[in-house]
Structures are given as structure tokens and as C-alpha cells.
Specification:
about 200 residues; alpha/beta; 9 helices; 5-stranded parallel β-sheet; about 10% strand
Length: about 200
């Protein structure tokens, strides 16, 4: 199981990012640290990635420079004066934009997700152990949800009733074992159902 470390003294930012990362990579273990000393005391080289705030990065730059390919610097703006050579992630944006930035980072850094473990482990299974799969209509509904359409717009586009859309929506979430549109967005992009540029 890959391990991810978030090193940031801002508790609220850490909790929010941890929640999102667990959606992006449900098979990863996400550990949080309020300081570099806490990370250093917990086998720092066992982590697949470090998400580190600027105020932690700067005084510990030597450590992170040696692990540059594993380090993502958390920034509060898209300012061009970001630390050179590091991947950066602006966290001062709405959730949908943050998820899109994370997915873009995952796709570019990991060959469109091919170097990551599969994210489909959370699909539910039937009584005989086979996986439940989405129907063609459920896949269409999922793609439209992820692209930001509301139930009525989906019903109009697919020429089905509003009740049918709600039923398909519930079935999609149940079959995939997901609980939020953010998680559904991540699943759809990571598995090639929706182009990241269309969300």
C-alpha cells in the first residue's frame, strides 16, 4: 500500500487535503504531520509522495530537494515565484478546481495513472464474488454528473424521466461504493470515462 505524507501545520487544510487524497487514491495510506520533526521521526523515506507546505519546505529544502520527484509543494496562489523544480499545488481554490489540479498532476506525473495501483478496488461485488459493473446508461449518467449537469438537464439530454436519472445516479454510487460527486469525478477521470478538460 503506497503511503502519502502531508506535512503542514494548518490542521484544517491538512484534513481537507487528506479527505480529497483518500478519494483520489483510495488504496493509499495518508499520514499527516504538523512539523518536519514529526515526519522525520516516522520513517520519512517510506512515503510515496510528500505534500508539504512552503513554510515547512524552505527550512528543510535539502531533504526535499533530494526527493524532488516525490515532493508536491502546497501553495496559496498561482504566483510565478514558486520554488523551482518542484511540482506545486495551489490549495486556495474551490474543491472542484483542487480535484482537477490533483488529477492533472497524477496524470502527468504518473503516465496518465498507469503507474498507479488501480482505483477500482472499491467496487462492490455480488453474492457470487463477481464485480457489479455499470450499464451503458449508468455510464452516460455518470459522465454527465461529472461534467456538472443537474438531474433535470441529464433527463432532458438523455430523454429519460427525472426519476430514472435519480435511480441511475443512486445505482452508480452504490455499485462503485462512492459517497460524493467529488469521488465520482475522480473515479470517472482516473478510469477514462471523462476527459479531465471537460469537467
Amino acid at each position: 500500500m503506497p503511503k502519502i505524507a502531508i506535512i503542514n501545520p494548518n490542521t484544517l487544510a491538512v484534513l481537507g487535503l487528506k479527505y480529497i487524497l483518500q478519494d483520489v487514491m483510495p488504496i493509499a495510506q495518508v499520514d499527516t504531520f504538523g512539523s518536519f520533526a514529526e515526519l522525520d521521526a516516522n520513517e520519512p523515506d517510506s512515503y510515496f509522495h510528500y505534500f508539504v507546505s512552503m513554510d515547512i519546505l524552505l527550512p528543510n529544502r535539502d531533504f526535499f530537494c533530494r526527493r524532488r520527484n516525490k515532493t508536491i509543494v502546497l501553495t496559496l496562489s498561482f504566483d510565478t515565484s514558486q520554488p523551482g523544480g518542484f511540482h506545486c499545488l495551489c490549495i486556495n481554490v474551490p474543491e472542484k478546481q483542487l480535484i482537477k489540479s490533483l488529477l492533472t498532476l497524477v496524470q502527468s506525473a504518473h503516465a496518465h495513472g498507469r503507474n498507479l495501483p488501480a482505483t477500482t478496488n472499491n467496487r462492490q461485488t455480488t453474492d457470487n464474488g463477481t464485480r457489479k459493473s455499470l450499464t451503458e446508461r449508468e455510464t452516460e449518467v455518470m459522465a454527465l454528473i461529472v461534467r456538472g449537469f443537474i438531474n433535470k438537464e441529464i433527463a432532458d439530454r438523455l430523454n429519460i424521466s427525472l426519476t430514472t436519472v435519480v435511480t441511475h445516479r443512486k445505482n452508480v454510487m452504490d455499485k462503485l461504493g462512492l459517497k460524493s460527486v467529488s469521488a465520482l469525478t475522480i473515479y470517472a477521470v482516473m478510469n477514462g470515462y471523462v476527459d479531465i478538460n471537460k469537467i
